[in-house]
Amino acid sequence: MTGLLEGHLVVGAMLFVLGAIGFLTRRNLILMMLSVELMLHGVSINLTAFGRHHGHHSGQVFTIFVLTIAACEAGLALALILGMYQRRKSLDVQLWSNLGEPDLPRLVPEPTPPPAEEPVELPHLAPAGRVPRLPPRRSVGQA
């Protein structure tokens, strides 16, 4: 690898890691969305660097697709965040962790019944040099 490619890959990986850390540690929805955008830009840099290294324009084409999807995602996410802010007057993710309907009773899982038949005994591996214990053989007439 050339020094130029390694530099681009390191920058792209650092952007992706910083975005992932930001997404996992932040509680504000806008900062989480910006962290996802940072991750997408890190991927775009890596795609462009690999495309240039191999002499193809496919990395740049994929980067255009990634940036187009990122722009659509940003517009949609901002619209959703605006609606959520108008509803709760906060952008804290912890407030949205209990999204259940208050009118419905809490769902209690039913206990599972015990198994109807005995478990099948599987053969065990014998130590080296010893004959394994085998279950007794049944004749054809026995069920």
TrEMBL record:
Cellular component terms (Gene Ontology): NADH dehydrogenase complex; plasma membrane
UniProt-listed NCBIfam families: PRK05715.1-2 (NF004320)
Keyword Heme: no
Function summary: NDH-1 shuttles electrons from NADH, via FMN and iron-sulfur (Fe-S) centers, to quinones in the respiratory chain. The immediate electron acceptor for the enzyme in this species is believed to be ubiquinone. Couples the redox reaction to proton translocation (for every two electrons transferred, four hydrogen ions are translocated across the cytoplasmic membrane), and thus conserves the redox energy in a proton gradient.
Keywords of the record: Cell membrane, Membrane, NAD, Oxidoreductase, Quinone, Translocase, Transmembrane, Transmembrane helix, Transport, Ubiquinone
Compositional bias (Pro residues): 108-117
Reactions catalysed, as given in the entry: a quinone + NADH + 5 H(+)(in) = a quinol + NAD(+) + 4 H(+)(out)
Gene for this chain: nuoK
GO BP terms in the entry: ATP synthesis coupled electron transport
Subunit structure and binding partners: NDH-1 is composed of 14 different subunits. Subunits NuoA, H, J, K, L, M, N constitute the membrane sector of the complex.
Keyword Membrane: yes
Region (Disordered): 100-143
One MF annotation (Gene Ontology) recorded for this entry: quinone binding
Name the UniProt record assigns to this protein: NADH-quinone oxidoreductase subunit K
Membrane topology designation: Multi-pass membrane protein
Pfam family, one: Oxidored_q2
Family as reported in the entry's similarity comment: Belongs to the complex I subunit 4L family.
InterPro entries in the cross-refs: NADH_UbQ_OxRdtase_chain4L/K (IPR001133), NUOK/Mnh_C1-like (IPR039428)
